[in-house]
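Please, structure for the following, as tokens.
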Amino acid sequence: MKKVLKFLGVLLGLVVLVAAALVAFVLLTLKPDLPDSEFALQPVPAEGSRNVIVFGATGKLGTEIVKDLRAHGDQVTAFVRASSDRSELEPLGVNFAVGDVLNPADVQAAFQAGTFDAAIATIAGMSEAELDRQGNINVTDAAVAAGVQRVILISTVGAGDSRDAAPLISRLALSKILPQKTAAEEHLRASGLGYTIIRPGGLPPGVVPTGRGLVSEDPSTMGFIKRPDLARLVLGVLYDDRTIGKTLAAVDPGLERPWEGADPK
């Protein structure tokens, strides 16, 4: 019995050491790498004038983007699944297009439902295979077919030429997602559309913005940014034609760790 207890004690000690090492690893590797220069977005006009279709509209980021667009006075069509919770979007006065982004016919039908100035794709998720790749590709292809020239794609740090900017733990956790994001980026660039790709790093929780978010053309940028601040940058990108053809990293230079973004109590 004493040997068993001793063995269990040693085993518990090893587990504690491994856990401590993992925590230390996370603390040491999840460090921001801030850009030397900012791409200063032009001020958005006082009143919105764009008709925009948003994919991934009921997600946390998509909802923030829709809120900003509507508050600005832009017209919004939210592409949603039949099973999606629309409770946060319905009071905003948006139009809805219902379908599955993995079904090209559904995406094409959504574009045919209106005359859109731009499409914003915030598609992301690990629950379905190929969602990040094929879903975004379907949006790009449908935009081409519909003649909608402006597409803003929300990607992630770690995709494409920013692979080395992502911490090792992020590359491991997103090992199945990063190749899909990369493929979606490459497909959009080759489409001939007026694209802008935005790569945020970590997205801390909370809905209270800090107002410090910025974008940079430096692909080595890595950091954290809250979704409301990212949404504000998306609105700025939409109204700044200088961002067409660019891939931009999004970061809040005031957030050094992902947990620092929690809303104040």
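The CA atoms of residues 120 and 152 lie 5 Å apart. The first strand starts at residue 51 and ends at 55.
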